[in-house]
Design brief:
two-stranded antiparallel sheet, single chain, elongated, mainly alpha, 6 helices, 4 strands
Length: 178
């Protein structure tokens, strides 16, 4: 595994984010803020609460996931397609780098950009709604589950491989349990 190549592709993609800051970071933040304004003002004035959670706080996780899924796919695909369109992909393809390493570099950069965007959108959401109840707690009731509650389930370390094993001792996953 050529980690130098993965790091080079990753750093190149992150540098491209810095060069295209407006379309990579600012544009998704503005569009999600417009969703907050439109849905919060238009629909939120008619729907005050959903199971004790304000409508603004209720739509925050959905809007964050909408933006994360859209931007992660577009960042990863644009990072690969644009060099192909411009003809510079041959520099990467002629290097002694496997497809797995190329994929790790591009997908790692897209995932990092998505995490950064998610944190920025969550901070922006605090400007529109009080996000103290945007993320439900462990024993919060989930609407439409007939009394089911979210319970933590311990992930056993032997189910995971490699370097993740040590971190899995403290990892909690969430599932619905009746």
């Amino acid at each position: 595994m050529n980690f130098y190549a993965v790091r080079a592709i990753y750093r190149f993609e992150m540098a491209r984010t810095g060069r295209t800051l407006f379309q990579s970071i600012v544009s998704p933040v503005i569009s999600t803020s417009l969703y907050f304004i439109v849905f919060g003002a238009a629909i939120g004035s008619r729907i005050t609460e959903i199971d004790g959670v304000s409508y603004g706080s209720f739509i925050v996780p959905g809007l964050i996931m909408l933006m994360l899924l859209t931007e992660s796919v577009s960042n990863a695909s644009f990072g690969i397609y644009f060099p192909r369109f411009a003809g510079t992909i041959y520099e990467v393809l002629s290097a002694p780098v496997s497809w797995v390493e190329i994929l790790m570099g591009y997908v790692g950069a897209a995932a990092t950009k998505s995490i950064i965007l998610g944190v920025i959108i969550l901070a922006t959401a605090n400007l529109f709604v009080a996000c103290r109840d945007c993320t439900p707690g462990v024993d919060a009731d989930v609407p439409g589950t007939d009394g089911a509650v979210i319970q933590p389930v311990r992930v056993h370390p032997r189910d995971l491989g490699g370097r993740v094993r040590k971190a899995a001792g403290r990892a909690d996953a969430y599932t619905l349990r009746r």
